Amino acid sequence: MRLDNKVAIVTGAARGIGRAIAEKLAAAGAKVYILDINMDLAEATAAELNAQGMNVVAKQCDISNVESTQALANEIIAEEEKIDVLVNNAGITQKLGVLELTEKDWDTVMNINLRGPFFLTQVIFENMMKHRSGSIVNIASLSAERGGKFAGINYACSKGGIVVMTKCLALVGGDYGIRVNAIAPGLIKTEMAKQLQFSTDAIPLGRLGEAEEVGDAALFLASDRSSYVSGTILDLNGGEFMR
User: Fold this and answer.
1) What pLDDT sits at residue 62?
2) Quick one: average pLDDT of 210-237?
3) In a domain? residue 1
4) Which residues lie across from 88 on neighbouring strands?
5) In terms of pTM, does the model score above 0.70?
């Protein structure tokens, strides 16, 4: 699953699942732009991966700011001309009950998890249409398929939107050789997950997933090994949810 001479963008890639994805893509030969709101951490991550012989560039990005995010996307396109892979990973969660949610809570999560990723994708999608190729991988969630048990309803709804966005883009992208898929992780061992106090009791495999396992799935979907896969939601949950 090589990505030699390809250019990839991964959002929310300074740590956690995003970092694992960026590392997998870079190790497979891609030049990877890691976008994150935390520039210090993004630069540290890029420096660490570059020291291992990878080709990684850190860029600051507030995915909730559509204007600046689209400007950054156009800046990267001007530098590279062709974008081969986009991974929409950036996201936040809130453990709030239905009656606790405020309008601000709802909008904050939607802006970061759904609105921002769409408008970033819009710019990259146009570039992929021009070159008639590309792979987009969206990070959804188990909560998008069964409802949010650990995260808030706003998080689950935003990830449900990612699932539908994936299918809509796959329908349009097919005519241009663009594949669009999503990964729906279940309980993954990350810093963000710690605040949710996950239990493994309902997981047949009896453990939390590793960020690197999400990275492997993203690499598969980004590579030509998945050349006939589009519009798919790949479950990665240890058997906790079965279709």
Assistant:
1) 98
2) 98
3) no
4) 138
5) yes
Sequence length of the chain is: 243
Q: 9 - beta bridge partners?
A: 33, 86
The verdict on residue 194 lying in a domain is yes
Q: What angle do CA 45, 49, 53 make, to 5 degrees?
A: 160
Residue 63 lies in a domain: yes
For the record, the structure tokens of 69 come out as: 């995010």
Find out whether 173 and 234 touch, Cβ atoms under 8 Å.
Answer: no
Q: Which domain holds residue 50?
A: 7-236
Q: What is the CATH number of the domain that holds 43?
A: 3.40.50.720
What is the number of structural domains in the chain?
1
Q: What is the pLDDT of residues 34-54, one digit of tens each?
A: 999 999 999 999 999 999 999
Answer yes or no: 155 catalytic. yes
DSSP per-residue string spanning 99-152:
TT--HHHHHHHHIIIIIHHHHHHHHHHHHHHHHT-EEEEEE--THHHH--SSS-
Identify the DSSP state of 188.
B
242, part of any domain: no
User: Which residue among 33, 155, 176, 228 is the active-site one?
Assistant: 155
CB 15 within 8 A of CB 22: no
**Distance (Å) of CA 60 to CA 24, 35, 69, 155, 156:** 21, 6, 9, 23, 26
Percent of the chain surpassing pLDDT 70? 97
Average pLDDT over the chain, rounded to an integer: 95
